[in-house]
Specification:
disordered N terminus, alpha/beta, globular, 7-stranded mixed beta sheet, 495 residues, 6-stranded mixed beta sheet
Length: 495
């Protein structure tokens, strides 16, 4: 195991933090918070404070809604082609500054630079995709079945949107919401995670440069999200809430939004099964698992959480997979040689430690890793466990880290039942050479997204979302993502 940490960061400002860290971005201007509070941003690799941002209050929430409501009519009425060109420019600027954005993500999030580069490319694609979709929003026209009357359906922007994003993909989770909302003609208020606010503010400056009018996108950070979000949802001008985060917080927000019957999109937790049948290409399955499990060091809602390997190949698979995991280089995200960066916080490491300890107490064996790494930074090594009890805590909870528990199974029916034995249903992975079997099992696994002989499921052109306790609605896709930010208006007429 190779841990290589930076002891400090240069005194200069290579990311331009000073241009936006002194203010909230409201109404196209950088302004201080109503209170004097600040939120420190910590580098997970070193535990050093790298910046601080304003701590928004309820008064700032009211100002943000005012700012978003002011240009709403003008943005809504702007020709779709013009909105499209602005979104396209956002894409182009993100591509031009991809390396700077990737390094900023690695610095505040800790993820390996190669993962951060992939995130920026993925995040930018939402602007390109929605720039193309913005000019294709159309309505419906038809004759009523009884004859005589005409049915006209128009799709209109839903209104001011509150967007709440997590820390694990600070660029992509924001653009996946902002791009379709803007394409639909909505204005937005983004509340990024307080652990990783710098990327959101950097992108706000980029949107302004791309031509997004003042107030169309607003960004505010807060350490008291409960009252701040409640204040926004209590404003009748807010008509949409889009949240990505834990199922527990999602339930709370749904209850809060219900008070004013606000439309909600929820992308919540996951507990993804990764199923490998005896007839699978073992090497291909391991390559896929390295992506599905170790992308962003396992800190992803789509990460493989329960790895089911059929008994005929279980031992060979476990041996080969363990060699791959043990060879990964652990280090700070900004180090280009790093393959597995730190966790986001000390609390995240402590959760992983609890899950591993519980699994071992129930009979699991550690093939590699299994202990926190000494020194500064929130590091946990790539870990493989076998003989894991399905009743262990990690079989029921999201691990959100570089820990891979392997479960042995015998039959197709058995693994389908095991895969579905969870309240979650976001993503699932299947490896088999028998495409008939793969499609059959995919149809029976309760998940919103299935990767068949692939380790990566996300694509801006595909609908992203889950079933059961994993959420409501979809993001991305040919029309799904924009549809979440529009309402259908039916006009009855005859002529």
């Amino acid at each position: 195991m190779n841990v290589n940490q930076h002891s400090s960061h240069p005194d200069h400002d290579p990311f331009g933090l000073s241009t936006f860290s002194d203010g909230l971005y409201i109404g196209g201007a950088w302004r201080p918070a109503a209170g004097e509070g600040r939120i420190e941003v910590i580098d997970p690799s070193t535990e050093a404070v790298i910046a601080s941002v304003p701590d928004a209050t309820v008064a700032d929430a009211a100002a943000a809604v005012d700012a978003a409501a002011s240009p709403a009519e003008g943005w809504r009425e702007m020709p779709p082609r013009k909105r499209s060109e602005i979104l396209r420019r956002c894409f182009e600027l993100m591509v031009e500054r991809s390396e700077t954005l990737a390094r900023l993500i690695s610095l505040e999030n800790g993820k390996a630079l190669r993962d951060a580069r992939g995130e920026v490319a993925y995040a930018a694609e939402f602007f390109r995709w929605n720039a193309e979709e913005a000019v294709r929003i159309s309505g419906e026209f038809g004759l009523a079945p009884a004859g005589g009357n005409r049915i006209v359906v128009d799709y209109q922007p839903i209104g001011v949107c509150v967007l709440i994003t997590p820390w694990n993909f600070p660029a992509a989770m924001a653009t996946r919401k902002i791009a379709p909302a803007l394409a639909a003609g909505c204005t937005v208020i983004l509340k990024p995670a307080s652990e990783t606010p710098l990327t959101a503010y950097a992108l706000a400056a980029l949107y302004e440069e791309a031509g997004v009018p003042p107030g169309v996108v607003n960004v505010m950070t807060t350490s008291t999200p409960g009252p701040v979000i409640t204040a926004m949802l209590d404003d009748p001008r807010v008509r949409k809430l889009s949240f990505t985060g834990s199922t527990g917080v999602g339930r709370t927000l749904l209850a809060e939004a219900a008070k004013n019957v606000i439309s909600c999109s929820m992308e919540l937790g996951g507990n993804a099964p990764f199923v490998v049948f005896d007839d699978a290409d073992i090497d291909a399955a391991i390559e896929g698992l390295m992506v599905a499990k170790m992308r962003n060091a396992g800190e992803a809602c789509t990460a493989a959480n329960r790895i089911y390997v059929q008994s005929g190949i279980h031992d060979v698979f476990a041996e080969k997979f363990t060699r791959r995991m043990a060879a990964l280089r652990v280090g700070p995200g900004v180090d280009p040689d790093t393959e597995c960066g730190p966790m986001i916080t000390r609390k995240a490491v402590e959760k992983i430690e609890r899950l591993v300890t519980d699994a071992i107490s129930r009979g699991a064996r550690v093939l590699c890793g299994g202990r926190s790494l000494a020194g500064r930074g929130f590091f946990y090594p790539p870990t493989v466990l076998v003989d894991v009890s399905p009743a262990s805590d990690m079989g029921c909870e999201e691990i959100f880290g570089p820990v891979a528990p392997l479960y042995r199974f015998e039959s197709e029916a058995e693994v389908i039942a095991a895969a579905n034995d969870t309240e979650y249903g976001l993503a699932a992975y299947i490896y088999t050479r028998d495409i008939g079997r793969g499609m059959r099992v995919a149809s029976k696994i309760e998940a919103g997204m299935i990767a068949l002989n692939r380790g990566l499921v996300s694509d801006p052109a595909a609908p992203f979302g889950g079933v059961k306790q994993s959420g409501l609605g979809r993001e991305g896709g040919q029309h799904h993502g924009i549809a979440e930010f529009m309402e259908a208006k039916y006009i009855a007429t005859s002529f």
